[in-house]
Specification:
147 residues, alpha+beta, Trna Endonuclease, Chain: A, domain 1, four-stranded mixed β-sheet, 4 helices, 4 strands, disordered C terminus
Length: 147
């Protein structure tokens, strides 16, 4: 079985979120949507903060500097979910062998003062995290969140 890269996981997660946004279960606004989709009263909107920057060579240095100038912070989680109740959930995606880096280990405890942070290594873990957050807020969609 081929291992799923972090970039492949990101694509699958965004596709899942967009699928449910289009069905009106979830709504999104961000880098993968031109505007609001689905219902006029979404449970949450999400933004994708994922940046797949090579870790070596001149291009990595150039792209890293460009990202920092534009406000990209080291260690920021890949996905941010903004809930209707004003709270926030962050999801960091990792490959099956991926580990948190030093910046993430430093940043995540700070973020937890403002909302929940999940580290997920599969689409199934993301679905479980989102379902947990939906239930925590008392939402009960009659539709299943899984694929």
């Amino acid at each position: 079985m081929t291992k799923q890269t972090e970039a492949q996981l990101q694509a699958a997660v965004v596709q899942w979120l967009e699928f449910y946004a289009a069905r009106g279960v979830y709504n999104s606004l961000g880098t993968y949507a031109s505007g609001y989709a689905g219902t006029a009263n979404p449970i949450f909107i999400f933004t994708s903060n994922y940046r797949n920057v090579p870790r070596a060579g001149a291009w990595a240095a150039f792209q890293g500097a460009k990202n920092r100038k534009s406000g990209v912070k080291a260690g920021w989680p890949d996905l941010t979910l903004h809930w209707r109740d004003g709270t926030t959930t962050w999801i960091e995606l990792k490959s099956s062998t991926g580990k948190l880096n030093k910046a993430q280990k430093t940043l995540f405890p700070t973020l937890e003062a403002f909302g929940d942070v999940y580290v997920c290594k599969s689409l199934e873990q993301v679905i479980e995290a989102v379902e947990e957050e939906v239930k925590k807020r008392g939402h009960n969609n009659d539709q299943s969140y899984s694929r």
